């Protein structure tokens, strides 16, 4: 049975996303403790796919995922899933709020309940750990007093819910990706997203030039993030998500232009959007507009038209 690794241990938000993306009759789920371990298992072929969190509507990007996707052997996203996130605060049975000195969670978890902690556990020290479920596991082991976890974590660890439905921002969501080794792309659906990473040359207007290539082809950007390249201070890797699929000519044409312009471009996948928002493509950037223009140039080159 093909295996799908996810950022675990059991009881993470990523497990919920992996369950939504997997077919229970076809896939076995494998929890791994870190995001790089999930991506490494995909690269090595140990698993068929891996599920990792990529961005949150409150706290932004998940840096570990960006680095794991941008560096090393290529992997590509074939699907995404968006999950609403609210938290449960879990403690060992018998723990009173007044006894809580340490509260552990994933950094994104802590960031999303900062106000609640301030109001309800003002004396507790927040401790960042690998994952929300890792925090629950550590509370069970007696390492910390409370964990800010996904609501499902209580089914995996014998803990008590001190509070549930905790979130400073009520409608917070996290987006997850299912990544595989490069292969055939998912078929275009008309509601797709394409992700890529580009390193622009270090020159005036380089980023603007890169974005201009998208604007010229009427490609809508849904996300732009920068991460240091890590080699040279002041050089950045730009992570771009755009509406559309590489099978569309305007996207292929834009990626080819970025390949000419940038020091480095990496394709991170074309996959259906969870929200199903259809991309509106109008003249002059429909496939037929590109085909007609290419035909005309070819005919001119052959001396048949002018
Ligand atoms: O630690 C987890 O449960 C994760 O899956 C990462 C995460 C952490 C906080 C909010 C959303 C996802």
TrEMBL record:
Its EC number is 4.2.1.51. One of its GO terms (molecular function) is prephenate dehydratase activity. It is an enzyme of class 4 (lyase). It catalyses: prephenate + H(+) = 3-phenylpyruvate + CO2 + H2O. PROSITE patterns: ACT, PREPHENATE_DEHYDR_1, PREPHENATE_DEHYDR_3. The keyword Lyase applies. GO terms for cellular component: cytoplasm. The record marks 174 as: Essential for prephenate dehydratase activity. Residues 3-181 form the Prephenate dehydratase domain. Pathway: Amino-acid biosynthesis; L-phenylalanine biosynthesis; phenylpyruvate from prephenate: step 1/1. Residues 195-272 form the ACT domain. Keywords: Amino-acid biosynthesis, Aromatic amino acid biosynthesis, Lyase, Phenylalanine biosynthesis. GO terms for biological process: L-phenylalanine biosynthetic process. The keyword Signal does not apply. It comes from the Bacteria. NCBIfam families: PRK11898.1. This is Prephenate dehydratase. It comes from Kutzneria albida DSM 43870.
């Amino acid at each position: 049975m093909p295996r799908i690794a996810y950022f675990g241990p059991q009881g993470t938000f990523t497990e919920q996303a992996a369950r939504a993306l997997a077919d229970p009759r076809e896939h076995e789920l494998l929890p791994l403790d870190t995001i790089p371990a999930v991506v490494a298992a995909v690269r090595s072929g140990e698993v068929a796919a891996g599920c990792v969190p990529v961005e949150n509507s409150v706290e932004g990007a998940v840096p570990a995922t960006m680095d794991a996707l941008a560096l090393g052997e290529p992997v590509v996203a074939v699907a995404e899933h968006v999950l609403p996130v609210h938290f449960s605060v879990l403690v060992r049975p018998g723990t009173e709020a007044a006894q809580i000195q340490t509260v552990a969670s994933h950094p994104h978890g802590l960031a999303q309940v900062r106000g609640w902690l301030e109001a309800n556990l003002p004396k507790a020290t927040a401790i960042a750990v690998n994952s929300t479920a890792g925090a629950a596991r550590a509370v069970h082991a007696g390492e910390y007093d409370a964990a800010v976890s996904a609501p499902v974590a209580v089914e995996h660890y014998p803990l008590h819910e001190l509070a549930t439905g905790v979130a400073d921002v009520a409608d917070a969501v996290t987006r997850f990706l299912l990544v595989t080794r490069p292969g055939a792309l998912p078929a275009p659906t008309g509601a797709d997203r394409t992700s890529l990473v580009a390193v622009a040359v270090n020159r005036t207007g380089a980023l603007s030039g890169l974005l201009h290539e998208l604007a010229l082809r009427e490609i809508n950007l849904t996300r732009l993030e920068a991460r240091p390249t890590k080699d040279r201070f002041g050089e950045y890797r730009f992570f771009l998500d755009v509406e559309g699929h590489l099978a569309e000519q305007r996207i292929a044409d834009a990626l080819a232009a970025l390949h000419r312009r940038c020091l480095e471009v990496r394709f991170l996948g074309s996959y259906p959007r969870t929200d199903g928002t259809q991309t509106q493509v109008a003249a002059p950037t429909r496939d037929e507009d590109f085909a007609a223009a290419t035909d005309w140039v070819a005919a001119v080159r052959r001396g048949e038209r002018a």
